[in-house]
Amino acid sequence: MTRLNLVELLGRRAKDARELFTGLQEIPGSSVYYHTHRFIQQHHYLSPEPPNDFAFWVTTALGQDALGERLASVDTVKFRSIGSLRAAFLDILRSALAERDGQNGECQEGEEFHFMSCRTFILPTPYEARGLGEFREILQKVSIDSIYFHVFEARLRLEKGDNDFSDWFEDLGETKLARDISRLDPYTFTLEGLREMIVQKVGEYVKD
């Protein structure tokens, strides 16, 4: 499968860390996902990818480097649900606000944080694999949007707990390969780099 995204502006802004905290409590999960994965989708040629939008804005617009570093340190790969990922950011912001005793610097006009989301449309591709050999060949052809969907969206946004490739390898009885792919940290690769790594891993199990 592959996917197309329609980015949506939610009509909500934050001018300081307190409003960011309040907004983060109330926005839909799709918005949390968007702001933690936008850089991977739009700047897939960068490695490592820039931090999440929350950390980037707190650092650049508010000038709060320490808080920005704490938000940037959230390791997205450790989370299996949007709810738990959201909670990690809220805990950091809650702690920071308490430490500042209510003092909260505002950004300059025009630099407010705009909460956004994206609506994803899942589309079929003409490709279908029935074994590891076909899978390796097809993976070299499909778009990065297809790879992104099966690795990132399946695991976290759809809350399947793992990427689609590992689930399929497990169904084939290729348990070790499934674990090898599952152990990869996809956030440390560009999407093309991730493609190459998975192709290489699968190649180790293909019987020519």
Q: Which key features would you list for this structure?
A:
208 residues, mainly alpha, 2 domains, two-stranded antiparallel ribbon, 2 strands
Shape: elongated
Low-pLDDT segments:
none
Which whole number gives the mean pLDDT?
90
Indicate the percent of residues in helices: 40-55%
For the largest sheet, list the strands in their spatial order. Answer: 1-2
* Class by alpha and beta content: mainly alpha
* Beta-strand share of residues: 5-15%
Cα gyration radius (Å): 19 Å
| Count of discrete alpha- or pi-helical segments spanning 4 or more residues | 10
Number of domains: 2
Summarize the structure.
The chain has ten helices and two strands; from the N terminus they run E-H-H-H-H-H-E-H-H-H-H-H.
Walk me through this protein's architecture.
Helix content is 53%, strand content 12%. It is mostly helical. The chain has two domains: 117 residues, no CATH class; 79 residues, no CATH class. The longest helix is centred in the middle third of the chain and has 18 residues.
What is this structure's SSE topology?
Layout: E1 2-14, H1 17-26, H2 29-42, H3 53-60, H4 65-72, H5 82-99, E2 113-123, H6 132-139, H7 144-157, H8 164-171, H9 175-183, H10 191-203
Antiparallel strand pairs: 1-2
